[in-house]
Amino acid sequence: MRVLFVSVNSSTGLSSSLSFVHAHIYSNFLKREVDVTILLPLDFDKSSVYPLLLFNDGQDFPALNLSETAARIQHAQEMRPMIIAGIHANHRRIDEYGTAIRADYAGRGAEAGATTSFVISELLPFLNEQYNVRLLGNAYAGFSLGGLMALDIAWNHSEQFSVAGIFSGSLWWRQKAIGDGYEDFDRIMHAQIRETAAPPRLKCWFQCGSNDENDDRDGDGVIDSVQDTLECIGEMERKGFVWNKDVFYTEVAGGEHNPSTWGQVMPQFLRWVSKVLD
């Protein structure tokens, strides 16, 4: 890994948005330059150690109004100081996000293992060196396929990421197509949770919108994204996770699969993260 370029916006104080840095990092694992947006907390002091809230799809920060939302909540002292960083995806997103354990039935997500290695072995050390981000006990979140990727990394690297946020997660991710005899046990993340002998210590926040999609593969009146999310939580409960203690669920009435809905619930999520991070 090498840092290619860093640009800085230096707004501070009572600004309506947080100071930010754009870093361009070459990843030896992904074999490409990775753009990362880094939001610095109010009164950032490099001599202090900060927890990290990492997001996939950092290119969507403007659409989420994330910088403005985080600044408002920090000004209100409803959020602890933390570094917020977002990994930008590119045209290879469908290959780089997924579950590291296996690709889906169409071969998508085949590079998810490389993304995991980038996050753990390249990005975290960079953020630690440059911004004094702690290496353990951080939070990881994402949207749609990025939410699945965040959960997968947190599940398998819970020392580094003890908190996960999954917004409209692609928990349908499966090893068999619907038309090829698909059954619910073909969902890859559900199976990984079910087959984990010693589940990690992890707190997870799941979100779905009631209009996240229209598909209802089993015709039970519950859209697939909600069903897949609730049944993923069910797998976790069977492993000992406790509802509203270890796993939390927010369903947005009329919410859709887009940054507008995710931005709507972002204040709630940021306050929750601030409370549950050790």
TrEMBL record:
Pfam families with a match to the protein in the record: Esterase
Protein name: Esterase
Organism: Dyadobacter linearis
